[in-house]
Design brief:
The structure holds three protein chains of three kinds. By secondary structure, chain A is an alpha+beta fold. Chain A is built from 23 helices and 50 strands. By secondary structure, chain B is mostly beta strands. Helices cover 10% and strands 36% of the residues of chain B. Chain B has one helix and six strands, in the order βββαβββ. In chain B, strand 5 (63-69) and strand 6 form a beta hairpin. Chain B starts with a strand and ends in an 11-residue tail after the last strand. Classes of the chains: A alpha+beta, B mainly beta, C alpha/beta.
Chain lengths: 993, 91, 417
């Protein structure tokens, strides 16, 4: 045997003996070879004890050789890359691999929590529902923390994942899952027919069971045929074959999810490479050739390390040249199990006995037994004598009642094969039962999907090739390709004979779900307590809910339930199959959407200029907006914002408001259209004028506001709030296309086309004169309040100029093509220098709008009416518009509604906070007198105190009333006065000046 | 789901926004509150084939009437809304 | 048999051979005082409160499949009472108080775990909205705390505080919120209700209503025959419109799919329940060790009980944005439930225009936390024919009168609630 690897064969297998790899398991150094999995390398090193079970912390070994493994789970890698619950059976070995067993303390061999086994008479299925109830407080304090610590499996890294994940789209005619004989035959057929093919193989090598079982195909050894087939596929330009890629989910419209483990076979991904890639594959046809999983038989002691699936034992010996046991017993109820005997004998291993549950075995098997000196026992395994170091003796109940004992250090078990029905069942197609193979096979697969080969219950090599090939031809044909596919590969079918056997009665724990420690008696208990439905059974016992998703346990579990209820297995039914087919790293679903790149970042046209100015930015949806522009020496944001407000109110300032939604409305019916979407009228707006508009939802609640200008007879320019820019566009398109298709109107979103600046303050005109072509008349007469028109700028660029004011000052908004936005900001600074121009951010903007009593997002909160906002008078009674009828409902016009009102603390030094509630003065706060709340606040430099807007019951009738601002969550209580919401220039003289 | 936009071709679900049942018709001006209440609030909520309004916001901004089975998500027909596209009735 | 550590120990001596069914396997009688359609959490809780609080024990719960097979068994197990609007606030707190005594009431451990629910905020506007909501809670006698960044960091040091696109600024915490074992709630109510004489009848699908000459509902037709009833209550989330249609009713409800996800079991990682305020993601960790998480509904009408990749990706993106430490934790299972989304995001518990037929519906994606409260007030309505004081606003006619309870302010578009 190979150096250091006590259980490695000197010859055979698909490992590369010239490429040794060092690795560590639980701190101990081992070596394996390129081509090994962690599991096969552990087997080759004679390691039998690999993990501990979930509940009883029982010692466990390796059961399988694939992604169905319930026992051999490890923490792979260390530090930030630690991956809990990694199946040793799918982890590829690499140089320096580090793995640790999990769910044990202090060590795998001596696990204190295995004391749970002593309590196992009490810790039966669902025991926790019956106890831990007294005293009630103890649950969170004592019981639950203890249970949580004991439960769980491996430990997550606990720090940010350092690796990157990719997402990709792919489109094809025929998608194939699995590269066993059926999958390869399907790929050859579809590819030759001219279809675009994608084949995904979960393993790192193509071939499926061919890699372990060999055989003869088209007269060639399987390995030879395999390499020829792969070469042919590789030469087809429209065929893509992927290893390390698992099809995990089936979604609507022929969309499939697949995970490619790009670099998991390395210690860490090479620089600039991703760890994994999630494929979203759109396929016209899908061939499921995912094979079948061998199933265990439930008997006492079946979880002893050294008990292994017969096919897995073949894989370890045949593919990896690793020897799980030197003296092997086989327990089978079917013909396929015997192939393990042949493989073992071929590798020079000893067979202790074959325990065959069938009534008889073939003469050739008998002669094999006598030639090789082992006995064939007719009966079942009833117990295993062994411990954490593995199997020692096997107790057998012989048909007829006698007992026998077999000495062996390994027990191969074969209970038959279950087709992988998950992928065909995710759309709630329920698999159907086939008595001849005692297994469920796919049924009711979604359109375009077909299962072939072992995945469809055809287990013979010849059948797999023929059915796979036919499926490939049909899939290509269905996708519109019918080139010459040639003939299907030919092989013989192995004999098949099986006598169903699920559970051998006996003393001792017999495990159905290994990982979750669900025993046969747990299932009987569940039935006794009324949890007979398979979904109840699953939920009560946790059967099938472990990381192997029930791949080895579900069918046995429901077979045992069927037996105790006296129903058939198909009558008992299956639970609903849920994706993913194998567990998938959460990071792979997120891709690059994390950290700063979680969502896109939108920058305003003047962003880079603002950044140069040292602006502090705030997130507004996806936008970064300048919040304020701190200057040297300013001690906090409030000082900066106050300066900006004062500068605007006394001189001139400007602010980038490009984030507003902007929509051009064109057409002969543009005015009529706007009349239907706004509560007020726009068809009578004069060309060259702007008007504030308010739109409702159809339920009568305010949806959005903004100014809309008429630039020509058939052209309006509409603005929306920043938050609703996209949504209003969608809403207006709905109105145009669905509700009012008869109107001649077109909408164009121009939000990104225009950079827009608000320029405000008494010196605005002085500044604008430096920017705008001197021929343009900006006087009050030539460009009155609410005027709107196109103007030329100095240098000839056309701009749109609007005399509108959010701040309450003499103000304009100017739009220039977005590419000039940054230049505009720089020019405003340059031209404004003589006037002390001050850039201001969203905070100052907010302060001035609150001073002016303008409503914004906090007041337009999706529950307020126009009247609530003090804008009821805008409502036209002469036309129909969206929301008109529902706005009239009794509760929406009730006199005691909460309406917008101003608030200011009676103590002028006091800070006011949004979210404080309004309670009548002198009353104890309670649900009965909770009359509203403060929506928006600011420190008003103009008022020289904190002021705010509030929604208060009957607020407008109560101006002057002193009420209580109740803010228990911030431990504040103080008196405020309800006041006119327009704190600044209530007559509006300044903005008209 | 994949939706075949009559203007853009087959596109992925993420490009579309759903509004709801396309069957209710907005009552004409002057219809009573009952009719509008019914239009705004009551739904057949069909378990089966249903006609729905979808918006191709990630593409051409057309509103589409999509016939889809709510039990299987299978789409059987797609047509543009009456006013989708540039051409106008009579224009 | 009373459940306790002592009864468990005694049962162990006899190999657990003597346990009785958790609830009786009843065969339908000809007539009941009250028939509840729907053997989910709400229906079973209603039956239990009818029997225990209102002395009405001649009650049947009819379940078309197995009890708890709808949303009761397909949710993310969160309980909380952190609502902001009148109608919801008091009701959910009533429900929370019932959670706090559930296990003693039912003699069944539903693993009610008050580990705290925290809603994170990422902007001043969000903080103000949470302050408003937290104050509402406090005014209604409900615990609420507004945490600043330092407090959040201390409680959840594993969040992304370094390079987040939308940095966490703080959170609204309800310490009494948490989780409960969803299936156990169903089984606990079934166990206790059955013990008081309620008949729980599984595999019994209602196929129609029996009406008298005046149109009054006097019973139901079922797959197991006709069953007479003094009153019939519907608690059939996911099927509300279909069942109501049998009585000629159209409801202000659309059914949508909500996906949820669970990871492989890992050792304790996340101490509480939290929601991300800058994306669609919320998470807790089950006692078994799985991260249980979800996000937004898929957004289209669906009865398919499964969703699609865009929302799954969106949820995981939210999770990775909030706590990039979960990148290597594997998603084990995804599933979808049918949410009966009402037109304002709040439930309906009311008499219907059909005499004798009572409605409990429209729980959107928030029905689990309401389970005991819903049962309590629905039992009150069925027993007394008047709404319970904490449910007076959950009227069916509120959309006609304009008295919506719209926490999110999204209006009559269910997929936005």
């Amino acid at each position: 045997m190979a150096g250091g690897q006590t259980n490695r064969l000197n010859n055979g297998g698909l490992i590369d003996r010239s490429a040794p790899l060092n690795f560590r398991f639980d701190g101990k150094s081992f070596s394996g070879f390129e081509g090994d999995t962690l599991a096969s390398a552990l087997v080759a090193n004679g390691v039998k004890l690999v993990g501990r079970s979930f509940k009883y912390h029982r010692p466990r070994g390796i059961l399988t050789a694939g992604s169905e493994e319930p026992n051999a789970l490890v923490e792979l890698r260390t530090g930030a890359r630690r991956e809990p619950n990694t199946k040793a059976t799918t982890a590829e070995l690499y140089e320096g691999l580090e793995a640790a067993s999990q769910n044990r303390w202090p060590s795998l061999r001596f696990d204190v929590m295995s004391v749970n086994q002593l309590f196992s008479p009490i810790f039966v299925a669902g025991f926790y529902y019956k106890t831990f109830m007294w005293p009630a407080k103890f649950w969170e304090a004592i019981y639950e923390p203890a249970i949580r610590r004991a439960a769980g499996l491996g430990r997550a890294a606990g720090v940010a994942d350092p690796d990157h994940y990719d997402k990709a789209w792919a489109h094809c005619d025929v998608l194939i899952a699995g590269s066993g004989p059926a999958g390869l035959a399907a790929a050859l057929a579809a590819g030759r027919s001219g279809a675009r093919v994608i084949l995904c193989e979960e393993d790192f090598a193509f071939g499926g069971r061919l890699l372990s079982d060999g055989g003869t195909i088209d007269g060639l050894p399987a390995a030879e045929w395999l390499s020829r087939a792969l070469a042919e596929l590789a030469a087809m330009p429209d065929v893509r074959i992927l290893t390390r890629t698992t099809l995990f989910g089936v979604y609507d419209g022929g969309t499939y999810g697949a995970l490619e483990r790009v670099n998991d076979h390395m210690p860490s991904p090479p620089e600039h490479q991703v760890r994994q890639r999630m494929w979203r594959i759109v396929a016209k046809r899908y061939v499921v050739a995912a094979g079948a999983l061998e199933r265990p038989i439930v008997f006492a002691g079946n979880d002893t390390p050294g008990v292994m699936m017969a096919s897995a034992m073949r894989t370890y010996v045949g593919r990896y040249a690793a020897v799980p046991a030197k003296r092997i017993a086989l327990f089978t109820n079917n013909e396929d199990g015997w192939r393990t005997v042949e493989t073992a004998l071929g590798a020079g291993l000893q067979i202790a006995a074959v325990i065959d549950a069938r009534p008889d075995v073939s003469p050739s098997h008998r002669s094999l037994a006598s030639r090789n000196g082992f006995t064939v026992l007719h009966g079942s395994v009833s117990g295993v004598d062994g411990g954490k170091d593995g199997v020692r003796k096997i107790a057998v109940s012989l048909t007829g009642g006698a007992r026998a004992e077999v000495e062996a250090d390994g027990l191969a078990v074969s209970g038959g094969w279950n087709p992988a029905v998950g992928l065909t069942s995710y759309h709630r197609g329920r698999p159907k039962w086939r008595d001849d193979i005692a297994a469920f096979v796919p049924d009711g697969a979604p359109p375009g999907m077909v299962a072939a080969g072992a995945a469809n219950g055809d287990f013979g090599l010849g059948a797999c090739l023929a059915k796979g090939f036919a499926a490939g031809v049909a899939a290509a044909h269905g996708a519109g390709h019918s080139g010459k596919a040639g003939t299907a590969p030919v092989a013989n079918d192995e004999a098949f004979s099986l006598t169903p056997l699920w559970h051998v009665a006996g003393k001792g724990k017999a495990f159905v779900d290994y990982q979750h420690d669900v025993t046969a008696s747990d299932i009987e208990l569940a039935q006794r307590e009324g949890f007979e439905s398979v979904e109840h059974l699953k939920r009560y016992t946790t059967l099938g809910m472990a990381t192997d998703q029930g791949k080895t346990s579900n069918v046995a579990g429901l077979a045992i339930m069927a037996a105790v209820t006296g129903k058939s297995i198909p009558e008992t039914g299956t639970t609903i199959y849920r994706p993913p087919y194998v567990p998938v790293a959460i990071g792979a679903f997120a891709g690059h959407h994390r950290d700063e790149t979680f969502h896109a970042t939108r920058l305003t046209p003047s962003h880079h200029w603002a950044a140069e100015q040292g602006a502090v930015f705030v997130d507004t949806g996806l936008w970064k907006r300048a919040q304020w522009y701190p200057r040297a020496g300013e001690k906090d944001w409030l000082e900066s914002v106050t300066r900006e407000v004062k500068a605007v109110r006394s001189g001139v300032g400007f602010c980038d408001v490009s984030t507003l939604g902007k929509i051009d409305v064109h057409g002969l019916d543009a005015g009529a259209f706007l009349d239907r979407v706004y509560i007020n009228t726009f068809s009578n707006l004069a060309v060259g004028k702007a008007r504030y508009g308010l739109m409702l939802r159809e339920d009568g609640i305010v949806y959005d506001d903004g100014t809309t200008s008429r630039l020509a007879e058939d052209h309006y320019f509409l603005t929306t709030t920043t938050a609703k820019a996209g949504l209003v566009m969608q809403h207006l398109e709905f109105c145009r296309q669905v509700l009012f298709p008869e109107l001649d109107v077109q909408l164009t979103s121009v939000s990104d086309q225009w950079a827009q600046f608000s320029i405000a303050g008494p010196k605005t005109r002085d500044l604008l004169k430096e920017i705008v072509d001197p021929a343009e008349d900006l006087s009050n007469e030539g460009f009155p309040f609410m005027g709107a028109r196109e103007v030329a700028l100095r240098g000839g660029i056309k701009a749109r100029l609007f005399r509108i004011s959010f701040s309450g000052e003499m103000a304009f908004e100017i739009s220039v093509p977005a590419r000039y936005g940054e230049a505009m900001a720089r020019n405003l600074m340059l031209a404004g220098e003589p006037f002390g121009v001050t850039p201001y951010g969203t905070e100052a903007l907010g302060v001035m709008r609150i001073e002016k009593g303008h409503v914004a997002g906090p007041e337009l909160n999706g529950t307020t009416t126009a009247a609530d906002l003090g804008l009821g008078k805008m409502t036209s009674t002469k036309k129909d518009f969206i929301g008109r009828v529902m706005a009239g409902r009794e509760a929406l016009v009730a006199p005691d509604r909460q309406v917008v009102v101003g608030v200011k603390p009676t103590d002028r030094a006091r800070r006011l906070r949004s979210g404080a509630h309004i309670i009548p003065k002198g009353q104890t706060p309670g649900p009965g007198n909770d009359q509203g709340y403060v929506t928006s606040v600011c420190f008003s430099p103009t008022s020289d105190q904190w002021i705010g807007l509030a929604l208060v019951e009957r607020g407008r009738e109560r101006i002057g009333e002193i009420v209580h601002a109740h803010d228990p969550i911030r431990a504040e209580d103080y008196d405020v006065e309800l006041c006119n919401p327009v704190f600044y220039d209530p007559d509006g003289g300044r903005q008209r000046g | 789901m994949r939706i075949v936009c009559p203007f853009c071709g087959e596109r992925e679900l993420g490009e579309f926004t759903y509004l709801g049942d396309a069957k209710p018709v907005r009552p004409a001006a002057g219809a009573g509150a009952d009719a509008v209440y019914d239009y705004v609030y009551l739904r057949d909520n069909i378990a089966g084939v249903m006609s729905e309004n979808w918006y191709h916001g990630g593409g051409c901004r057309a509103w589409l009437k999509v016939t889809r089975n709510t039990l299987t998500h299978e789409i059987s027909a797609i047509e543009p809304a009456a006013g989708a596209g540039a051409a106008k009735v009579g224009a | 048999m009373k459940y306790s550590i002592f009864s468990l120990a005694r049962a162990a001596l006899s190999g657990h051979k003597n346990w009785q069914r958790t609830w009786r396997d009843a065969t339908p009688k000809d007539r009941y005082d009250v028939v509840i359609i729907g053997g989910g959490g709400h229906g079973l809780a209603t039956a239990w409160f009818l029997a225990s609080e209102y002395g009405i024990k001649n009650v049947a719960v009819l379940e078309k499949g197995w009890i708890g097979s709808g949303n009761a068994g397909r949710n993310t197990t969160i309980i909380r009472s952190n609502y902001g609007l009148p109608g919801n606030t008091g009701f959910y707190e009533l429900s929370m108080k019932l959670w706090e005594r559930m296990e003693q009431d039912l003699n069944y451990n539903a693993m009610v775990s008050q580990r705290g629910v925290i809603n994170l905020y990422h902007s001043d506007a969000q903080r103000d909205a949470y302050a408003r909501r937290g104050n509402t809670m406090r005014i209604n006698g409900i615990d609420a705390e507004l945490l600043d960044l330092a407090a959040v960091k201390k409680m959840m040091p594993f969040l992304n505080f370094d390079n987040a696109r939308f940095p966490v600024q703080g959170g609204l915490l309800q310490r009494r919120g948490g989780t409960a074992r969803h299936d156990a709630v169903v089984w606990g109510y079934a166990h206790a209700a059955s013990g008081l004489g309620v008949d729980i009848i599984q595999n019994c699908e209602v196929t129609g209503f029996v009406r008298d000459a005046n149109g009054k509902v006097t019973g139901v037709e079922t797959s197991r025959g006709r069953i007479g009833a003094g009153k019939v209550g519907m608690a059939v989330a996911g099927s509300s419109s279909r069942v109501a249609e049998m009585a000629g009713l159209r409801l202000p409800i659309e059914s949508h799919v909500l996906q949820a996800f669970v990871s492989e079991a890992i050792k304790p990682l996340i101490p509480n329940v939290m929601t991300f305020g800058a994306g669609h993601f919320y998470v807790s960790q089950s006692d078994k060790g799985g991260l249980v998480f979800g996000g937004d509904i898929d957004g289209y009408n669906s009865y398919a009980q499964r969703g699609n990749l865009p929302v799954m990706e969106d949820v995981c993106e939210g999770g990775m944005a909030l706590m990039p430490m979960i990148g290597r934790v594997r998603l084990l299972r995804q599933w979808g439930g049918i949410m009966d989304m009402s037109m304002d995001g709040s439930p309906i518990i009311d008499k219907t225009p059909v005499d004798g037929l009572y409605l409990n519906a429209g729980w959107c994606y928030g029905g689990f936390k309401a389970t005991p409260g819903s049962g309590f007030v629905f039992a009150h309505l069925l027993a007394r024919d008047t709404p319970h004081e904490e449910a007076v606003r959950f009227r069916l006619d509120r959309f006609r009168t304009g008295a919506m309870i719209d926490e999110k302010g999204q209006g009559a578009q269910p997929n936005l609630h």
